[in-house]
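Dear Dr. H.,

I hope your travels went smoothly. While you were away I took the liberty of generating a structure for the chain from your last submission, since the lab meeting agenda had it listed for discussion. I wanted you to have the full record in hand beforehand rather than looking at slides cold. The sequence, exactly as received, is reproduced here:
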Amino acid sequence: MPKAKQFTISAEDRPGMLARIANLLGDADVNIVAMNCATFGVHGAIQIVVDHVDKARQVFDHQRLPYTEQDVLFLELPNAPGCLGEFAGKLAGRKINVTSGYATAVAGCEKASVVMQVSDLDAAAQIQ
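The corresponding predicted structure, in token form, is as follows:
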């Protein structure tokens, strides 16, 4: 299972922040392959996985956007009932804790994309 770099961008909670960040990345030819947003009062966090990590860093640095990086598990699972539970069970069987995660699938698609921060990324990446 592949590993990926996830960026967490700190942003003010106001209309247009996601659009700004997405447009900046798009203008740099960086594709967002996974995204999650959350707000905390007047602040928010946008978590993204992209196809060109170095280009994304350049965009964030040039725009002076505050961000952090995390190594995450980025995988595809079958888009079928029970598949996430089966994979999570394999993690639990190896005593690997999921500390955060998000997933998405389009109706009718065979695969779902899943992003997870885990307690042991190397071991989780070996699970079939």
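Two observations you may find useful: The chain has a mean pLDDT of 94. The helical segments are 17-27, 53-63, 83-93, 121-125.

With kind regards,
E. W.
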